[in-house]
Amino acid sequence: MDRNQVTQKIVTAKVSKKMTWAQIAERIGQSKEWTTAAMLGQMTLTAKQAATAQELFELTDEETLWLQIVPYKGSLPTPVPTDPLIYRWYEIVSVYGSTIKELIHEEFGDGIMSAIDFKMDIQRQADPNGDRVNVMLSGKFLPYKTY
Amino acid sequence: MDRNQVTQKIVTAKVSKKMTWAQIAERIGQSKEWTTAAMLGQMTLTAKQAATAQELFELTDEETLWLQIVPYKGSLPTPVPTDPLIYRWYEIVSVYGSTIKELIHEEFGDGIMSAIDFKMDIQRQADPNGDRVNVMLSGKFLPYKTY
Amino acid sequence: MDRNQVTQKIVTAKVSKKMTWAQIAERIGQSKEWTTAAMLGQMTLTAKQAATAQELFELTDEETLWLQIVPYKGSLPTPVPTDPLIYRWYEIVSVYGSTIKELIHEEFGDGIMSAIDFKMDIQRQADPNGDRVNVMLSGKFLPYKTY
Amino acid sequence: MDRNQVTQKIVTAKVSKKMTWAQIAERIGQSKEWTTAAMLGQMTLTAKQAATAQELFELTDEETLWLQIVPYKGSLPTPVPTDPLIYRWYEIVSVYGSTIKELIHEEFGDGIMSAIDFKMDIQRQADPNGDRVNVMLSGKFLPYKTY
Amino acid sequence: MDRNQVTQKIVTAKVSKKMTWAQIAERIGQSKEWTTAAMLGQMTLTAKQAATAQELFELTDEETLWLQIVPYKGSLPTPVPTDPLIYRWYEIVSVYGSTIKELIHEEFGDGIMSAIDFKMDIQRQADPNGDRVNVMLSGKFLPYKTY
Amino acid sequence: MDRNQVTQKIVTAKVSKKMTWAQIAERIGQSKEWTTAAMLGQMTLTAKQAATAQELFELTDEETLWLQIVPYKGSLPTPVPTDPLIYRWYEIVSVYGSTIKELIHEEFGDGIMSAIDFKMDIQRQADPNGDRVNVMLSGKFLPYKTY
Amino acid sequence: MDRNQVTQKIVTAKVSKKMTWAQIAERIGQSKEWTTAAMLGQMTLTAKQAATAQELFELTDEETLWLQIVPYKGSLPTPVPTDPLIYRWYEIVSVYGSTIKELIHEEFGDGIMSAIDFKMDIQRQADPNGDRVNVMLSGKFLPYKTY
Amino acid sequence: MDRNQVTQKIVTAKVSKKMTWAQIAERIGQSKEWTTAAMLGQMTLTAKQAATAQELFELTDEETLWLQIVPYKGSLPTPVPTDPLIYRWYEIVSVYGSTIKELIHEEFGDGIMSAIDFKMDIQRQADPNGDRVNVMLSGKFLPYKTY
Amino acid sequence: MDRNQVTQKIVTAKVSKKMTWAQIAERIGQSKEWTTAAMLGQMTLTAKQAATAQELFELTDEETLWLQIVPYKGSLPTPVPTDPLIYRWYEIVSVYGSTIKELIHEEFGDGIMSAIDFKMDIQRQADPNGDRVNVMLSGKFLPYKTY
Amino acid sequence: MDRNQVTQKIVTAKVSKKMTWAQIAERIGQSKEWTTAAMLGQMTLTAKQAATAQELFELTDEETLWLQIVPYKGSLPTPVPTDPLIYRWYEIVSVYGSTIKELIHEEFGDGIMSAIDFKMDIQRQADPNGDRVNVMLSGKFLPYKTY
C-alpha cells in the first residue's frame, strides 16, 4: 500500500458520495485549496484531520495512518502537462516566467517567492463578458544572502 | 535579424541606462507586467508603443518594426526551468496543478482559465515575518461546449 | 476506479455490440465528433447523456457517475504520436505550424484560435482520384489585450 | 549557406517592405497557405516562382537556387511547441487525436489522411460572439493494403 | 481488453504450438511480412482472416472481433529502440536518412515514399562470406503539389 | 574547422554548380548511394576520391584532408526526424520493426542484419498507378555465438 | 506470458536456491558471462541448454520454450542508467567514447568493433592497493566498404 | 575561450600535420589511450606535457594554460550516441549491463568498478576470420561500506 | 518477487508499527542514514542485519534473502525529481555544481569526490531564526592518474 | 551581451592571471564558496564587490553592471550532468534522495531544507587512507503550513 492508493480511494469515494471539495474542506476545517491538495496526496494531515477524513471516506486504520505520513509530492503524470486547464498554467510559466522573474527581482532583489510558505485563494468573479477565475498567490520572499 | 536580437538589445540598453521596468512601463503607458513581457519578446506593440521603445532604447527603424510583429512566444530555455525563482512557479503547477483543476471545475464546470484573456498583478506586501510577494492572476473562464 | 477504466469498458462494449460512433452519437444526441471524444474520456457528460451511455454500454452506477466528472484530458500515450494516422496530424502541426501562425496573425492580429470554444466536422468527399477526408475546424479567435 | 538563412532573409525583407503574405501569394500565383509555407522554408519553388521571390525580396542568385532545392522540413524548434497559437493545434491533436482516428477509420477503414496530397484553407468567419478562425483541411485517404 | 492483450495471447500460442510465421501466413493467405505485422497488432484483419486466426490460436469471439478493429500502431517500447537488430534499422535511418532523402528528391522531386501504399519482402541470400539478409521495400511516390 | 563545415561547403557548391548526385558519383567512381552518403559527411574517402571531390567542389587542401578522416556519423538533427520523407522511414522501423525482427530470427536464428557490411540501391519503378520508389537493402547476417 | 516473466522467475529461484552464476554456467556449459546474459533474458538458449535451465529453476514447459525464442534485448530501465555500477560503464562510454573511436579508426580504418561477434571475460586481479576488476572485451572489426 | 576551442584547434592541427595519436602519445610520454583522451579535452595535462603539446600543435600561451585546467568532461553530443562505433559500446552497456553488475557483485560484493582509478588498453588481434579489437579495461573495485 | 516489493512491505510495516528510522537503525546497529538507505532498497544487508529486519517487519524467508542481494540502485522515479524537498538538492547540484567542481579541483587537482567511499550525517541545529538542517557529506578524493 | 559572456571572460582572465578562487574570494571579501558561485554567474554582486571584480579581471563598465543584475541561474548544460565529479553529486541525490527526505521529515515534519537561505563549506580532511572531501551543507528548514 502507498499514498497513491489512498488518494485513489478518496477520489472514488468523493464521486460515489457526491461531496464537493468545499464541503470536505469545511469538515476538515481548513481552506478548500489546502484541503484539496491534501486529499490529492500532496499534503500531510494531523491525526485529527486524518480521523475526519477516515470518517468521510470510510478509510481503514492503515489508510488513515498513511494520510499522516509526508508524501512524495508532484501531482502530474508528465513534465509538460497534457490537460488543457493545467497546461494553461504551464503556459503562463513559459510565457510570463522571465517577466515574473524580472519584476520580483526589481522589487525585492535576488531571491525567490516561496512555494512552501505559500498560500493560494481561488475565487469566481462575475463579469458580464464572461465570469473570470481570480487566483491570489502569496509567497514569502526569501533573499539569497552572501556568506 | 529576428525578435530575439531586438530583445537582447533592449535588455542590454536597459542595463546600460539603469532604467527600471516600472519606469519603462510608465513611458509605454501600460502596466509593468504587460510592458516587461512585451520588452522580453512575448507581446506585440502598437506603432505608438514601438516608437516610444525606439526612443528609449535607441533602436533602428527595422528593429522598431520587429516589435510590431507577433513573436514566437515562450521565454524559457528548457521545459523544466533551472532558475530557482521560475522553478518555484513550475513547482506550484506540479504540486497544486490537480488541486487548481478540481476547484475550478467544481465552481465552473468543464473548461479552462484563459491564459490569453488574462492579466497579472505583482505586489509587495509588507509583513513582519518577512515581506510577501502577492500575485493576482485573472483569466476569463472558457467553457467547453457540446455540439 | 478512474475514468480510463470506464473508457476501456466502453470501447470493449462497443466492439462486442458492433455499434458505430455515428449510432452512439445519435443516441447521445450530439455530433459524432463530440460524442466520440466524450466516450474516449476527453469530455464531461450531463446526467442525461450519461444515463444514455449507461444503458448503451451496461455501465454500473459508479461508472456512470465518472462520466459526469471532468476528466484529465490528453488521449495519446507519447508526446510524438506513433500511430501513422495521428502522426500525420502532428506532421501538419510541425510542417505548417509556422504558416498557420503567420496567416492567423495577419488576419486577426496577436492572439490564438481557441481549442476550447472549438468544434470539428469530419466528412468524406468522393473524388475520382481517391476519396478525400475533409475536416473543418472552427475556433473562436481570442485576442491578447494590453492592460 | 543553407535554406534557413534564405528563410531568415525573406522574413526580414517582408518586415522591412511591409508586405503581407496575401500580397506575396498573389505575386507568386498560388494560395496564401502554400506560399507562406514555401517562403518559411517548407516547400520547393519552381524556377519561375523562385524568380518572382528573387525580385520581391532582393535575393542573390545563389539564394534563389536554394528555393528550388527540396528543404529539410519541420518548422518548430521543439517537439511540443511553446508558442500559444501553435500549441492549441498540438492540443487538438492530443485531445482529439484518438477521436479523429476512430471516425476516419469508421468511415474509410484502415489507412491515413495524407499530409502530402493535402491542402489547407484558412478563413475568417464574422460572428457577433467574436469572430472565428475556420480552417478546412483536405487530405486524400490512403488505405493500407494486404499483400 | 485491448489489442495488446490479443497480441500477447497470439505470441504465446505461437510459442506453445511451435508454429512459424511462414506457416501462419500460408494459413491466413497473405505474405509472411504482412501476416506477421498483423499478428503483432499493426494491421487490421478481414472477418475471414480473423476466423482463421481464431482457429489457429484458439481465440474467443471477442478477441477475434478485436483483430478486425484498426489498432493504435507502433510496435516499439522506446523512441530509440534498444534491441540490436531493430537498432540497426534505426541506425540506417540515422546514417543514411539524408542520403535517401537527397536521392529520392533528385529522381522524383519534392514528395515522399509512402509507408502506407507500401510493401516489404525479406529474403535470405546465400553467400560464401556469410549469408545476407536482403530486404526489398517498395512504396508509391507521393508528390507535394502546389495549390 | 570540422567535417560539418566541409559538408556544408559541398552542398552549397553542388547547388551553385547544378550538379546531380548521380553525376558526382560517376566522377567519384562509386554508386550514387555510397557517394551521396560520403559527400554528406557519413563515409571516409580515399585520397584519390578526395582529390576528385576537391576538384569538383573547389575545396582547400585542408578541407580535402578532412574527407579522408573517419567522421562522427549520424545525419539527423533529432532522434525522431521531422522531415516527412525521412519520418516515413522511421515509421517503417516503428510499425514493422517487430515484424522484421521476427522474420529474420525465424530464418537465421539470433543475430542481426549488419548496417556496416551493408549496401543499398534506390530505383524508380514506373507504375500506371503512380511510380514507386524501390529500395533494396542488403546486409550480412551476423549471428550471436555462445562462448 | 513473456520472456521478462521467465527472467523474473529465474532470478527469484536463484535467490531461493542460493546458486551462483558461476555454478549455473557450469551446469549450462558456457562461460559465466554468456550464461548470465542468457538467464537475464538477453540471449537465446538451445533446446539442451533450456532443458538444463528447466531443471535448475523448476520451469514449466512453456517457460522453457520461451528461453529458446530470440528475446527483445536491452536490460536497463532508462537510457542513462541510475545504478552506480552500471553508470560507471556509461561514464566510460561518455568520457572515453571519442578516444576509443579515434584509436580504433587509427588502427583499423573506418568501421566498427562488433557487439555481436563479441565476447567478454571478467576477472578479479588481486592488488595490494585494492583488488581490481579486469574486463577483456573482444569484438571482430567490421570495415565499412565502398560499393 | 574555453577548452572546447583548444580541442578543436588540436584536432585540426593533427589533421593538417598528418600526425597519429600514437606518435603524439610518444611525444607526450604516456599511453596512446590516456593521451588521446587528454587531447580530446577529457584529461588535465602537467606543465611539461602541455609544453610538448604547445610545440606539437603551435598553441598560444593561453591555450597551453587551458590544457592544465581540469575540464568539464563528457565527449559525446547526445545521451544515446549516434555514431555507429560508439553506439556499439553503448549497446554493450545496454545489453550486458545487468550481467556485468551481477558478476562483479558475485565476485566482490556491493560496490563499483572505478572509472577514475581506471586504465584501458586497446590492441589489434590478428585473426584469419577477420582481425579483432581487444580492449582491456581495468578499474579498482570500490566497496560500499556500512557506517 | 523483487527488491521493490520488499521495500514496499517494509515501508508499510513501518507505518503500521509506528516505528521511526532512528529506532530501526538502533536495532540494525548502524547509523540512521545508512539504515534508512538500506531499508529503502539502496544497500545490501548482512545475514545478521537481515535477520533483525525480518523480525522487525515480519518478513518471509525469501524476502529476507532479497535484502542480502545487491539491489539495482536509484530511488527516484524521474531524472529531475518532482518532490520539493528532493528537488532542492537537485537545485543545489544545478546551481552550485560548477562551483563545487572548481573548488575541489583547486584543492585536490583532477579527480572526484567518491559517492561510494562516502558517508552522510544529518543533524538539526536549533536557531532562533528558524532551525536549520545541517548535512555533512564526506567522500574520499579519488585522483585521475596518467598511465 | 549577457551574463554568460561576462562569466566566460572572468574564467579566461582567471586562467591567464593564474589566480585561485581562494585569492579572488579574499579580495571580494566573502567565502570561497559564495565567491566562486558568483563569479560563475549564479549570484548577484553589490556595487562594491563588482568594482573589485572589475579591477581583478579588467572588465568594462557595462560588464561590471551585468554582475549586479540578478542572473538566470543554473550552471549545467544537461539535466543529468556528464562531468564525473558533478555526476557523483547527482548520484547522491538519486541514491540517497529518498533517505534524506525520510530523515528530514522524521526530525522536522513536512517541509523542505532551503536552497536559498543556504550555505556551504568545502574542506579537505587529511586521511592516511586517502584524503577526504568534507562538505557541510546548511539550510534553514521551511515548514509547510495549513491555511
From TrEMBL, chains A, B, C, D, E, F, G, H, I, J:
GO molecular function, one term: DNA binding
Signal peptide: none
Keyword set, alphabetical order: Lyase
Domain Cyanate lyase C-terminal: 75-147
Keyword Lyase recorded: yes
EC number(s) per entry: 4.2.1.104
Gene3D superfamilies on file: Cyanate lyase, C-terminal domain, lambda repressor-like DNA-binding domains
Cross-referenced InterPro entries: Cyanase, Cyanate_lyase_C, Cyanate_lyase_C_sf, CYNS_N, Lambda_DNA-bd_dom_sf
A Pfam family reported for this protein in Swiss-Prot or TrEMBL: Cyanate_lyase
Entry keyword RNA-binding: no
Reactions catalysed according to its record: cyanate + hydrogencarbonate + 3 H(+) = NH4(+) + 2 CO2
Catalytic center residues: R88, E91, S114
UniProt similarity note: Belongs to the cyanase family.
PANTHER family: CYANATE HYDRATASE
Function noted in UniProt: Catalyzes the reaction of cyanate with bicarbonate to produce ammonia and carbon dioxide.
Protein name: Cyanate hydratase
Organism of this sequence: Herbaspirillum frisingense GSF30
